[in-house]
Amino acid sequence: MLLLLPGGARDLAALLSRRHDAAALATLSATDPTSLKIRQRIDVGVRARIEAAMADAPAVARWTGYLALPVNAPLALRLTWESADHLWRWAGDTATDENHYSKRAILSGILISTLALRQSAGAEAAEAHLAARIDNVMAFEKWKAGRKPLLAFADIAAGLGRIRYGRG
Question: pTM for the whole thing?
C-alpha cells in the first residue's frame, strides 16, 4: 500500500477526485461546448462533475469529511481548483488575465457547495442551488462589465498569465 499511495489517505483522496474529474470529462466529451451558452456550459460541466462524484457516493461522503479537516484544507483547495480548471478548459476558457483566477475561484465555491447540497439534501436541492449560483455569477459579471479593473491587480494577473502561459 505504501508503494501505491505513499501519502496515505491524502493520495487516496486525490486519486478519487481525479478519477471523478476524468469521468466528468469523459461524459462531457460527447457535448460540443461551443454549441452552448457559457451559463449552459458551466451548468452541464458542474452537473457532470457532481454526477461523477455521486457514482462513488459512500466514498465521497467519507472523503469530503476528511478533506474538510483544517489540516487537509490545502489539498482540498488544490483538488477543487483542479476540477474547476478542467471544467473551464472544457468550456473553452483561454483567459490568462485576472479572469483566469477569478473564474476558477468562483467555480470552486460553486462545486463545493453544490456537492455538499447534493450529499445532504438531494439532487433537486443541488440543481436549484446550482441554477441560483449561476444566476448570481451572471449578474455579477454584468455589473463588473461596466467597471474598470484595479490596475495593480490586472497587471499582476497579466504577469502571472505571461509567466504560466507565455502570453498575456
Answer: 0.82
